[in-house]
């Protein structure tokens, strides 16, 4: 089968950083689905895993953690899917990724694809959707209300500051926060095009993450916010998040820190701090792995009801090393809006 892989971890400008290769087609075991990949999404985690280092792989390593495709075969313990089903998922970081014609994935972390979307539209969603959903409704423990319309900005509405609103996770988190949780959303964006993007997704207020966040919040009428979701540069934004969060509020981040974080800043407020990492369930084979498949099914229904929209903003074709290197380079540049997707081998 065709695949895009690496054996050395090189700068993306190097044509050997990602290579077109031929690999054996895998066979499903246990609860595995064998999925024929139709489209893949590209995420910052792909860039981080591929980042230059001295390691050399003995066999080609396939990356990629966003896919939409068709079930071609099932393992003997599979009960949720059958051959021919259209599915979407983010996969498992401990297993070969989705940058290949066929991939094995545990059925528990797979969702039924939204009926109203194309494969490329669906491939933009799984990793960011799982991350945003888990961050909001499991880590921050916000209650889904499935609000039919965005709430008015009132003193009684719960508020959330989403730092990095125009990226992949932010693009989904804004929609879920407004349309599913009924929150007032303040998103950060630094360019006119990214501000336009987050407003179209439902953010009622926009501030610049390169500026003084607490001061900008006050200018928008917020002395503090109930929740903060950090989606880029935890080290830089944590002090501002700690200053902005309300007493007994919560901060969640999805980005690892490079230095110590002064969590003592939260003590007087009795505020909380928590991580979100969407690969936790599959990495540790947790008892509730099925929750990821369930939430993808739930979001698929919201998409088909036009409550939530796909966040794809650029589609490249075909799926090959040259186009994937281009997508990685765009993400490394830090100016991507929404999601980049590749379709068709």
UniProtKB/TrEMBL annotation:
GO molecular-function term, one example from the UniProt record: oxidoreductase activity
Organism encoding this protein: Collimonas fungivorans (strain Ter331)
PANTHER family linked to this entry: PROTEIN AST1-RELATED (PTHR43482:SF1)
Protein's UniProt name: Zinc-type alcohol dehydrogenase-like protein
InterPro entries: ADH-like_N (IPR013154), ADH_Zn_typ-1 (IPR014182), ER (IPR020843), GroES-like_sf (IPR011032), Lipid_raft_assoc_Zn_ADH (IPR052585), NAD(P)-bd_dom_sf (IPR036291)
Matches recorded under CDD domains: AL_MDR
Swiss-Prot/TrEMBL keywords: Metal-binding, Oxidoreductase, Zinc
Pfam family, one: ADH_zinc_N_2
Lineage summary: Bacteria, Pseudomonadati, Pseudomonadota, Betaproteobacteria, Burkholderiales
Occurrences of domain Enoyl reductase (ER) (ranges): 13-342
Assigned protein family: Belongs to the zinc-containing alcohol dehydrogenase family. Quinone oxidoreductase subfamily.
Keyword Cell division set for record: no
